[in-house]
Structure formats: C-alpha cells, structure tokens
C-alpha cells in the first residue's frame, strides 16, 4: 500500500513553499523506506523551486541532502536494515546496466539517472518528490550508510555539497602540496575548503564578501583573496594548480583563469546557465584547462562519507524548522547563510 506523506513544496515559481500532502509508493523489492530526520537546503533547491533552470514541474518538493532512519525494506534488500542511519543525495535510481552505472557513475546513466526530486520515476513516470518531507522511498543502491559515530544532525549537507566538492578534488588528485583555490564561500564552497584542507592541500578562499575572510580561515583556508579587489587578483596571477568554482550564477571567468599556473585546471560546479565567453589566450598560455563536475557517483559518495567520518569533516549547519524554509530561501538569496541550512524534520512540518 502506498503511504501518506507530508512535505513542503510549491505550486509555482513565484509562490512560497507550503505543506503538501502526497503519497509515497509501496515498496518495490529493492526499495528502502526512510523516516527523514534532517534535510539540507541546497541552492539547487531554490533554483528549482523558482524555475531558474526552466525545467520545473509543479508542484515540486525539493530536498536532496537527506538523512534518516530505515523503517522498512523490500524483500530483495541486503545492504540496509530497519533502524540503520542512512543518507540519500541527488539521485534515487538509474538503469544500473550501462557503462556509466556499472563503473559507479550513475549520475551519467545513459538512460538518465532519476533525480531525487522533479524527475520522472523510471517505472511510473510520476515526478519524484524530495527530502523536505517526513519520509521517502528509495532504491537500495542509492541509499548510503552513515558511518557509525557520525553526528546525524550535521551529515545531510555532505550528500550534495560534500560530494560535489569532494568528487572534483578527488578526480584531479588534490593532495599534499597542491595549491587550491575555492571560489564562493557558500554551502559548496565551505565544504570545498574543508575537504581540500583535509586532503592536505594549501587552500585559498576567493570571496566577494570580505567579512567572510576570518571564517574561511577558521574553516581551514590558509589564505583569502577578495575577488572584487583588482590588486589582490593581480598579485595572485598563476598561483594555483586547481580552482573549484562554486559561483551559482553566470559570470566572467577570465579574471579567475588568470590565477591558474602551468597546466592548472578550473572546475565549474555552480553555474549551470550559459556563461559569457572567455579569452582563448587565458587557456593557451600556461596550458590551462576549464571543466565541470556533476555531484559524484554512489560509490564515491560512500567513500566521501567515510572520509569525512575518519577526518572529522562536517559542514557548518544552521538548523531550522521546516516552516522556516521560506525565510531561509530569502536569506540564501541574500548570501546570508553560514554555511548551510539544515531542516530538522521533527519541527514545523
Ligand atoms: P550558496 O550557498 O548560495 O553559495 C554560493 C556562493 O557563491 C555565495 O555564498 C557567494 O560566496 C558566491 N557568490 C554568489 N553570487 C555570486 C556572484 N554573483 N559572483 C561571485 N560570487 C558569488 O550556493 P551553493 O548551495 O553552494 O550552490 C552553489 C551552486 O552550485 C548553485 O548554483 C547550485 O545549484 C550548484 N550545484 C551544483 C552541483 C553540481 O553537481 N555541479 C551540485 C550542487 C549544487 P562569497 O560571498 O564568498 O563570494
Ligand atoms: Zn544540491
């Protein structure tokens, strides 16, 4: 039997989020049912709620940084059992047969992975509904284990902000001796700083907000550059091996490319919209590269959780009640979050 669920979502781009009652599907043989305890608020949730990417199907219930407890499992589930503390990120299903899925890159499933919200279910075509809700039903492979001893209240943001920054740092072998810069001290950026520092890199925070400089150092940055100060940007030319760019909107990149040293790489994870052009010479001289990165696969997500548990890496969370979400969205837009909102699902649902 499908179960009755309560979530928070919106009917239109210009409407606030409000309580919405809906049904979660009956368990398929490989499904896990999870009572959600915490859900992080990613800027992507806001982009989707406001239809910034023009693909939102309403009503939408966002949320793809999910932590909770297993309440039921389908007969074929072996990976999880009732009572386990588990986590779900941006994906809930994929074909599991193509080269991408079998190599652990479900995010690039040839048939398209099913995202946690605003994505058609592979079997029914019904739009998925995310983690701003009391419970969720997810295919077992897409449910990660929260390592024993981790503080459940602070894990949720790792499932998107954590993996989206860990994955490129890991792919490009950032480690001891790497000179890394992270652009944008928000939800993703602050995890980028923490993870890069935990990997042993020398980390510089590049921010538009001078007041965040002190925080950046507390989070693990060794140096800070205020990007609106041309002198500081000029002085940092060719300084970095790797730049993680988390700016959430379209922006000029020439000034940032100029900070890369020989064979340096900038990975863009924030801006999904069309970007203005850049100068070829900024890539050609100094052999620079620019690329992108989308979250990470499920095995890498589990690896990231284990890494964060082993190295005591946690997001900085401002915990709110579910009914405070609209205010949180406004503050996110005003760049007023230090550094990730996490909804405590036991309050205000
Ligand atoms: P966030 O918390 O709002 O942080 C973004 C930060 O970027 C801000 O705190 C600000 O930092 C800086 N910033 C904002 N506007 C800027 C501008 N116009 N110019 C320069 N810097 C600016 O957002 P988030 O949750 O970290 O998400 C960042 C982006 O990543 C979003 O677009 C989100 O959709 C995307 N995302 C992508 C993936 C993926 O798979 N690639 C996954 C998750 C999220 P300062 O004050 O320090 O300048
Ligand atoms: Zn996200």
In short:
With 349 residues, the protein is an alpha/beta fold. It has helices spanning 43-49, 99-102, 161-171, 187-198, 213-219, 230-235, 254-257, 280-284, 298-311, 325-333; strands at 3-9, 18-24, 31-40, 66-73, 85-88, 91-93, 114-115, 135-139, 144-145, 179-183, 202-207, 223-226, 240-245, 260-268, 289-292, 317-321, 340-344.
Structural category is alpha/beta
CATH architecture of the largest domain: Alpha-Beta Complex
End-to-end CA span: 23 Å
Number of domains: 2
- Tally of helical runs: 10
What is the average per-residue confidence, as pLDDT, rounded to a whole number? Answer: 97
How many strands? 17
Which consecutive residue ranges, at least 5 long each, have pLDDT under 50? Answer: none
Summarize the main sheet: 7 strands, mixed
Q: List bound small molecules.
A: NADP nicotinamide-adenine-dinucleotide phosphate, zinc ion
**Could you tell me the radius of gyration in angstroms?**
20 Å
State the CATH topology of the largest domain: Quinone Oxidoreductase, Chain A, domain 1
The CATH superfamily of the largest domain is: Medium-chain alcohol dehydrogenases, catalytic domain
Mass-distribution shape: globular
Helicity, in percent? 10-25%
From N to C, what is the helix and strand string? EEEHEEEHEEEHEHEHEHEHEHEHEHE
What does this entry look like structurally?
- The chain has 349 residues and is an alpha/beta fold.
- It folds into two domains: 3-159 and 315-344, Medium-chain alcohol dehydrogenases, catalytic domain (Quinone Oxidoreductase, Chain A, domain 1, Alpha-Beta Complex); 161-292, Rossmann fold.
- It contains ten helices and 17 strands.
- The strands form four sheets. Strands 3, 4, 5, 8, 9, 16 and 17 form a seven-stranded mixed sheet that branches. A six-stranded parallel sheet has the order 12-11-10-13-14-15, with helices on one face. Strands 1-2 form a two-stranded antiparallel sheet.
- α7 links the parallel β13 (240-245) and β14.
- The longest helix has 14 residues, at 298-311.
């Amino acid at each position: 039997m499908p179960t009755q669920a309560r979530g928070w979502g919106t009917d239109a781009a210009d409407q606030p989020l409000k309580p919405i009652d809906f049904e979660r599907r009956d368990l398929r043989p490989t499904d896990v049912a999870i009572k959600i305890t915490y859900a992080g608020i990613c800027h992507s949730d806001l982009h989707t709620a406001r239809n910034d990417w023009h693909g939102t199907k309403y009503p939408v219930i966002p949320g793809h940084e999910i932590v909770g407890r297993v309440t039921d499992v389908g007969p074929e589930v072996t990976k999880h059992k009732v009572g386990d503390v588990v986590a779900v990120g941006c994906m809930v299903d994929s074909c599991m047969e193509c080269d991408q899925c079998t190599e652990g890159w479900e995010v690039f499933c040839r048939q398209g992975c099913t995202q946690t919200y605003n994505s058609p279910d592979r079997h029914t075509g019904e739009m998925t509904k995310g983690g701003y809700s009391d419970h969720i039903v997810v295919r077992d492979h897409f449910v990660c284990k929260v390592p024993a001893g981790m503080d459940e209240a602070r894990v949720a943001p790792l499932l998107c902000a954590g993996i989206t920054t860990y994955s490129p740092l890991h792919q490009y072998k950032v480690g001891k001796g790497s000179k890394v810069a992270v652009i944008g001290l928000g939800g993703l950026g602050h995890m980028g700083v923490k993870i890069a520092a935990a990997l042993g890199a020398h980390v510089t925070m590049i921010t538009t907000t001078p007041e965040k400089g002190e925080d950046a150092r507390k989070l693990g940055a060794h140096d800070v550059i205020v990007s609106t100060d041309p002198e500081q940007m000029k002085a940092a030319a060719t300084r970095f091996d790797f730049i993680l760019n988390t700016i959430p909107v379209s922006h000029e990149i020439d000034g940032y490319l100029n900070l890369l040293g020989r064979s340096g790489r900038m990975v863009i994870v924030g801006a999904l919209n069309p970007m203005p052009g850049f100068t070829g010479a900024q890539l050609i001289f100094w052999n620079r590269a620019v690329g992108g990165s989308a979250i990470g696969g499920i095995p890498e997500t589990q690896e990231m959780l284990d890494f964060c548990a082993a190295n005591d890496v946690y997001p900085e969370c401002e915990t709110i009640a579910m009914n405070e979400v609209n205010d949180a969205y406004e503050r996110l837009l005003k760049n007023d979050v230090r550094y990730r909102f996490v909804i405590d699902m036991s309050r205000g649902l």
